[in-house]
């Protein structure tokens, strides 16, 4: 499927080209088109979304994207349904345990919206080499969920080579995150400062950074108050989990014995990032103790919130209306709060 440009931007498919909405689609999506407009719906209709890994976060994101009316969904997951998947993955049933995840979920995804084409790939070997490059080139947006940092960086690099927007999201117990690299993203934003007789919307461009650059972000320019507002304890707890996985062949911490190592990693990352010492010098021990015990588990409410936010932001980027996340969102299930940190962006 060809990817169309919006004013020379390669980050979203165009709503003015490609197949137009059918009468059935216009009727089904009438209410939401009143919210975000025909062109935005057309962009979604002409988009192919690639989702890698079907766990709790992806389940919620897929539900929202399919109901919103994207054109095609491609899901890749070579793993089988486990008993643990039944807690947060509402697309699975008891009898699905032992079956491949995408095979078990496909018909239930299709039933959400028969107008959306759903393609599933259960052979994970496609995620390497030229096959993966071909797969990336065939879609409009890539969404990777519950993956380790090192592979996220690799996949992000493949997306950049092929000029495809990249989203990543996942949960670790009560914590969750979303990262996005939308390349040079153009969007329409309300201009609330415009005079009464002037246009109420303006076109803006946001220049994003890849994940490997974002992770080198230095916090030294933030005041104590600004640092507090972005909840760095949660940000660095998630970054510590990523580093832990890198040191342990992709494995997540699964008991309290990992807390000391997580604390050491987090404190080192905080120091390297030059976080304002008036607010944070080391990661809270209570947070890391909790992560050590719960990071390996999925909690349905946290998956629902993070997956819902992930889908909402991806659809917003496709519609090219309103500014998307820029560029690292974290959710703290202990407080119910979410914050966005601008990492490594101009």
Would you kindly provide a written description of the structure presented here, covering whatever features stand out?
By secondary structure, the chain is of the alpha/beta class. 41% of the residues lie in helices and 17% in strands. The protein has 14 helices and 10 strands. It has helices at 23-28, 30-36, 38-45, 56-68, 85-88, 101-112, 129-137, 149-161, 211-214, 224-229, 232-247, 259-272, 285-294, 300-319; strands spanning 48-52, 72-76, 117-121, 141-145, 166-172, 175-181, 184-190, 201-207, 328-332, 337-341. It has an 8-stranded mixed beta sheet, with helices on both faces. A two-stranded antiparallel sheet has the order 7-8. Helix 8 (149-161) links the parallel strand 4 and strand 5. Helix 4 packs across helix 14 and helix 11 (232-247) crosses helix 12 (259-272). The radius of gyration is 20 Å and the shape is globular. The model is unreliable at 1-12 (pLDDT under 50).
Keywords:
346 residues; alpha/beta; eight-stranded mixed beta sheet; two-stranded antiparallel ribbon; 10 strands; disordered N terminus
Order of helices and strands: HHHEHEHHEHEHEEEEHHHHHHEE
Task: State which percent range the strand residues make up.
Answer: 15-25%
Low-confidence stretches: 1-12
Number of helices: 14
Instruction: Give the class from helix and strand content and strand pairing.
Output: alpha/beta
**Whole-Å distance between the termini?**
32 Å
How many strands, which pairing sense, and closed or not: the largest β-sheet?
A: 8 strands, mixed
Question: How are the elements arranged and paired?
Answer:
Blueprint: H1 23-28, H2 30-36, H3 38-45, E1 48-52, H4 56-68, E2 72-76, H5 85-88, H6 101-112, E3 117-121, H7 129-137, E4 141-145, H8 149-161, E5 166-172, E6 175-181, E7 184-190, E8 201-207, H9 211-214, H10 224-229, H11 232-247, H12 259-272, H13 285-294, H14 300-319, E9 328-332, E10 337-341
Parallel strand pairs: 1-2, 1-4, 2-3, 4-5
Antiparallel strand pairs: 5-6, 6-9, 7-8, 9-10
């Amino acid at each position: 499927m060809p990817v169309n440009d919006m004013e020379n931007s390669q980050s979203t498919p165009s709503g003015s080209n490609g197949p137009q909405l059918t009468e059935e689609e216009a009727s089904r999506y009438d209410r939401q088109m009143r919210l975000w407009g025909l062109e935005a719906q057309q962009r979604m209709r002409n988009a192919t979304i690639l989702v890698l890994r079907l766990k709790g976060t992806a389940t919620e994101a897929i539900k929202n994207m399919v109901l919103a009316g994207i054109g095609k969904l491609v899901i890749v997951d070579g793993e089988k349904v486990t008993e643990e998947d039944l807690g947060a993955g509402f697309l699975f049933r008891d009898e699905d345990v032992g079956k491949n995840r995408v095979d078990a979920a496909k018909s239930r995804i299709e039933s959400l919206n028969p107008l959306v084409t759903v393609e599933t790939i259960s052979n994970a070997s496609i995620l390497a080499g030229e096959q993966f490059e071909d797969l990336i080139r065939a879609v409009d947006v890539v969404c990777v969920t519950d993956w380790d940092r090192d592979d996220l960086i690799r996949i992000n690099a493949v997306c950049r080579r092929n000029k495809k927007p990249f989203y990543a999201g996942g949960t670790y117990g009560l914590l969750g995150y979303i990262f996005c690299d939308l390349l040079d993203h153009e969007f329409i934003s309300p201009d609330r400062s415009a005079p009464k007789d002037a246009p109420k919307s303006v076109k803006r461009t946001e220049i994003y950074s890849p994940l490997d650059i974002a992770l080198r972000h230095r916090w030294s320019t933030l005041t104590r108050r600004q640092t507090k507002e972005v909840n760095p304890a949660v940000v660095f707890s998630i970054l510590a989990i990523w580093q832990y996985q890198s040191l342990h062949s992709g494995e997540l911490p699964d008991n309290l014995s990992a807390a000391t190592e997580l604390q050491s990693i987090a404190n080192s990352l905080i120091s390297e990032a030059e976080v304002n010492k008036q607010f944070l010098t080391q990661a809270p021990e209570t947070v890391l103790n909790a992560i050590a015990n719960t990071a390996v588990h999925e909690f349905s409410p946290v998956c629902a919130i993070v997956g819902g936010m992930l889908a909402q932001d991806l659809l917003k980027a496709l519609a090219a209306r309103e500014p998307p996340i820029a560029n690292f969102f974290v959710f703290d299930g202990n407080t119910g709060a979410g914050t966005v940190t601008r990492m490594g962006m101009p």
